[in-house]
Amino acid sequence: MTDDKRVRQGVRTLRVVTALRRHINWLSWGLLAVGLAWLLVLPLELYSNRTYLSENALMPNQARRSYGDAQVAAAHQHLQALVNRHDQDSRVAYVFEWLQRLGYHAETQSFQYTQTFVNQTWAGTNVHGVLHAPRADTTEALMLVAPWRFATDPNRSNLSGVAHVLALAQYFRELNHWAKDLILLFPGGPPTLGIEMWLRRYHGEAMLSPHQADPLYVRSGVIQGALTFELPHTAAYASLGIFHEGKNGQLPNLDLLNIIARITKQENVPLTLHHIVRSSPAQLNGHQRNWLSSDNWPLLYRHYLDSLRTLWTTMAAQATGLTQGTHAPFHRYRIDAVTLQAAPHPEATGPAAPWPNGPMAGFHFQELGRVTESVFRSLNNLLEHFHQSFFIYLLPSPWQYISIANFIPPVLLMAAGLLGAALGSWWSVHGYYQPPSSMARSNPPLTTTTKQAAYDWWVQQLFAQTETQFPRRIHNYAAFWTLARPTLAVLVVFHLGLGTLLYLLPTIVPQSLQIVPPGLFAHLGLSTAEAHMALTQGFTLFSCLVSFGAVRQWYRNCYDPRLLRMLTLLLLMLAIAAVSVVNFSLALALAMLTAVPFSLLPTPNVKFEHPTNDAPAVPTFSGGPFVWRSVLLAWVMAISPPVLANTMAWATNQTWTQLWSGMVVEHQLFGSWVYPLLCFIYWPALMSAVLILCYPSLRIDSIPNALGMDK
Amino acid sequence: MGAPSKPHTQFGRLAAAAVVIRALLYFGAQSLVNHLQHRIELATPLTSYPRLQEGVFLYQSGFDPYDGNVYFQPALYLPLFQLLAQLPAAWTFAFYAVMDIAIAWQLWQIVAALQASRSSAPNTPAPITAPKTAAATKHTKACKPSDASQNKTCRLPATTAEFDGSVALCPATVAALYLGNPLTILTCLAHSTLVFNTFAIVSCLRHSLQQRWTLAMAWLAVAAYLSFYPAMLIGPALLILGNARATTMSFVGRCLGVLIGTSLGLGLASYALVGSWSFIASTYGVALTVSDLTPNLGLFWYFFIEMFDHFRSFFLVVFQLHTFIFAAPVCIRFNNHPVLAFTVLCGIMALFKSYPSVGDMVLVLALLPLHHQVFKYMRYTFLTVGLMVYALVLAPLFWHLWIYQGSGNANFFYAATLVYAAAQIFLLIDLTQSMLRREHDRLYPTVRTLLVAQE
Fold first, then answer.
1. Do both B72 and B211 map to the same domain?
2. Is-contact B370 B344, C-beta < 8 A?
3. Is the residue at A613 inside a domain?
């Protein structure tokens, strides 16, 4: 009667599928746990590879350096001259005059930018000079940048950096090996803004109304690399810190960092990432790496902690894009750029002196000049464009990298965990019920002796199984449409309605400030950022009320929280997986914040009493204990953007309004994706979670009737 | 949808809602619209609106619009868009919105025609020949009281109507699904000229179902004139027309006559308009020889960028034959389900044509609800939908990584198009296999349960 082979096949498939269906939640939690645990593996010394120079043409440390005392003296002269000039205009004039005197094609560019959201106008003057390479055709250029102030801290002046670059300008003029033009830029105003305005004009972008910047006439070719110097005004420096993260997860090519690491090592300049001083050597030798020998364990442990701190700091910078240097705007134009920021030496006192008495602690212009010269001689060899080495990497130390194949699995595992949780909901909605426990692991009873009897037993089981599950499947389009409609309505309200409102708020709020009676916000003591936050919460509450009302009233019969849970989880998974290819750190932050609470969201566990032939299955349902749901609700509240903004403000010693408006400005000025992601994915997903936790129940007994399913 | 009201009022409301959404986006986010018109996912070199504007400009200035390898679209668009170019841009938008609504109206008529044919003569469109159905029904009924203990197949719906699901498909649902589909809205905003092609194809289906064979063939000729590939829909169209009448050679001959006649007329009109035959090489020639290698969502561009020139002609033939080779087998196997054959061939076109865009997928998604009775047999719904959405998010992201950030390369984007193709393949496989399964269940009700168990 039956084909043995087909039955056997069917049994096997069914067993696997049944086991998967029964344990899908545990499977997804397992994937999440493995993903989270994997993150702790990343800083291990064994897990990362040593960096290597991919583009051989660069040849760092191969050229002879002759930056010497004369140039150091010039740098100190410039520094003294700049210190003696007290207002910005005369300093700009000094730099401009010097560039012209040295034979550079120099130009000034003034710009102005009004940011309506924070209601502030910034203005400044950029100075730049171009040295056309004697033997090349003005198609390629390298850039050296010194802002007047530190990008990260506007209170610290960078006169040393400007003096350093001016001294180099003088020196580079005398060298005759240049194959590419040199552009020196001294951005005014807030340095990042100055550079952004300069780059926009350099690349011929049109200026829209809030931006105003003079056009540039002194030009060169394609900019292939840029180096920014930020040097505090002190007698000696302890180490040189690299800042390299751009917006939206963009990073400079690893080869740029590689040549800097190799050259600073040659010059005995200590190199750090983000000023994280290591208690262990950044490079371990072959003997120290041997983790089998217990002598090395303390060292390896310290190395692990150092790498962990470095990864944490650099990835936080990459995820938010908030703590950036002047190099960040370059990446958008496909220019590989880094900021080199010197850390003051703790023992150094007083201002810089050209000829210190006795041996000097740390380093100063001499070493920096040799490093810069060497880096530029190396960049001078660059062919076409940085393309050989990695663009996507993580750095536990300047000498080690983790490639994407090694760091993306944890995030993908977490996304897979969310997918599993969504699949659990889907199977539940799609009408499969929890199979009888006897089905999953049982074998034919021992009394069956013959093979044929065993098959017959299985065939019986199969019939029992499928007979109960088949009619329960939602089996036409209209039925599914009826079932999905309330959930889709909720998603549209949150992700499209609320999302668009929140997204448009930063442009609406400043305009509404002009519309509402003057002084209303001031009377309430609210700044723009606070008004924005207040309105954000108001709209969120409003959309919540709409959705709650919709769920309660209009769609009471057919609202199914399992569908909402499934779609929310899928959207989140999609966002994490998609963002991970562009900005890994942001995807990781998203996954770490949301994956665990979201996968724990209750699935209404629909159980059918085992049906008899006459009576249809009677579903019962439970949404989880109230206490557990309250805990989850508190968790979801804890990861909501206002709470996060306050936590981050507390951790970074800023006010949350600064962070909040910083995020908006980042989006409006530099096109950062953090704010849109927050509006369209993160916040709405949290609202869906709240909805699921508050209304976990469904009246499933009414659903078959509403859908016209056969009994 | 909603309370029962007059169909026209209902459609009017739907159309109004659709226009409001489109108008809000069009007038509210002008920069978004400009951006969309240049998205390669929405418009290919053969359907791009900016290229059309260029062609119209050349035509207006008295040049051959096909000079300069920019304009690859049919010549008859030129006077139409020359007229629209005289008017404010809002008119062009209104024209596209009206096209969308017209397509939705044709879909509405298609559903109505399908329902009319089912309710008036339940046996006529029944896919299984009469004796077999009768036998199956008899068998089912026979087993009901007696064999309950042996196997429980007695719930098998006995009649076609029951089998098709107790809830009939509502025309408004199909129209709403087309108009509300975000991909439809994006294609409309991008002003892709593919909508004319879609309109011609759905019109052909509508008139076929309503047994107006002259109009059906004429619209098929228009569709083939606009993008060539729909020529393969002649098979399913003839099958639908043949359902209601004795299919004689003379009828087929007359159909072909209308088809060829209309095509010739359109061709001659184009010649008269442009004054040369250059449009053939620039429209069908480009579609067939893939001479413009601008990346798109299809499978051609990457291969033909990578390929050595001496293999090119061979693989060109292989790729194009591969597209057309499905036409006959699909028609033969599904000769009882010509509408399904029509849908599957539209899916094949969206998948394997040389310059596909999401607009092609929109047509398939619009025709899909017509087969709602097989949805319960579908096995990969979750996978298909998931892959499709993922591909449509990945494609622009990888494009961004490749073109703007420079940290990715062409392989990234091509990988996204492969995911997109995989989703379409899963959809087609799922659709055909569920129809075959349904047919099988109706023929052999006794083994039905066992097969379901094997999922």
1. yes
2. no
3. yes
Q: Is residue B287 part of a domain?
A: yes
- For residue B51 the two structure tokens come to 């290229």
The nearest alpha carbon in chain B to A496 belongs to B182
User: What residues of chain B lie within 8 A of the CB of A250, using their CB?
Assistant: 405, 407
Find residue A107's DSSP bridge partners: A128
Same domain, A247 and A315: yes
pLDDT at A509: 67
Label residue B60 exposed, middle or buried (CB < 10 Å: 0-12, 13-18, 19+).
middle
Phi and psi dihedrals of A449, rounded to 5? -105, -45
Within-domain flag for B15: yes
Q: What ipTM was reported for this prediction?
A: 0.84
B315 and B420, same domain (yes or no): no
| Distance (Å, whole) CA B317 – CA B390 | 31
Position B150 scores a pLDDT of 37
Name the 3-class secondary structure at A211.
Answer: strand
- The answer to whether the Cβ–Cβ distance between A463 and B394 falls below 8 Å is no
Q: What is the DSSP string of B5-41?
A: --HHHHHHHHHHHHHHHHHHHHHH-HHHHHHHHT-TT
Instruction: Assign 3-state DSSP to chain A and report helix, strand, coil percentages, each to 5.
Output: 55, 10, 35
| pLDDT tens digits along A360-392 | 778 888 999 999 999 999 999 988 788 878 888
What is the extent of the structural domain holding A562? 4-41+409-443+451-707
- Tell me the residues of chain B between 143 and 182 that have a Cβ less than 8 Å away from chain A: 148, 151-152, 155, 165-170, 173
Q: Could B453 and A2 be called an inter-chain contact, meaning their C-beta atoms sit closer than 8 Å? A: no
Nearest C-alpha of chain B: how many angstroms from A225? 14
pLDDT of res. A438: 39
Judge if B384 and B364 occupy the same domain. no
- Per the CB < 8 A criterion, the answer to whether A410 and A38 are in contact is yes
pTM of the model: 0.86
- The CATH number of whichever domain residue A282 belongs to comes to 3.40.630.10
Regarding whether B318 and B401 lie in a shared domain, the answer is no
One-letter amino acid at A615 equals: A
Give the whole-angstrom CA distance, residue B42 versus residue B283.
Answer: 19
Residues B368 and B395 in one domain: no
- Cα distances (angstroms) measured from residue A193 to each of A147, A188, A213, A229, A666: 11, 8, 11, 16, 11
pLDDT digits (tens, 9 = 90+) for A194-204: 999 999 999 98
Placement of tokens 């994006």 in the chain: B186
B452 touches chain A (CB under 8 A): yes
Nearest to A479 among B167, B386, B397 (CB): B167
Query: Are residue B181 and residue B113 in the same domain, yes or no?
Result: yes
Q: What pLDDT does residue A17 have? A: 77
Interface of B with A in 331-390 (CB under 8 A): 369, 372-373, 375-376, 382, 386, 389-390
Sequence-ordered list of residues with C-beta below 8 angstroms from that of A71, at least 6 positions apart, any chain? A167, A168, A170, A171, A365, A369
Alpha-carbon torsion (A445, A450, A454, A456), positive or negative:
negative
Give the domain range for residue B318: 7-133+165-377
Task: Pick the residue from chain A with its C-alpha nearest to B408.
Answer: A391
Angle of helix A683-694 versus helix A561-582 axis, rounded to 10: 160
Residue at B159 is within a domain: no
pLDDT at residue A295 greater than cutoff 60 = yes
Query: Is residue B330 located within the same domain as residue B234?
Result: yes
Q: State the smallest CA–CA distance between residue B182 and chain A in angstroms.
A: 12
Residue-level pLDDT at B204:
96
- In this structure, what token pair is assigned to residue B185? 């809205």
Choosing from B377, B407, B430, the residue where a domain stops is B377
Q: Are A186 and A129 in contact (CB under 8 A)?
A: no
Looking at the fold, whether A25 and A60 belong to one and the same domain comes out as no
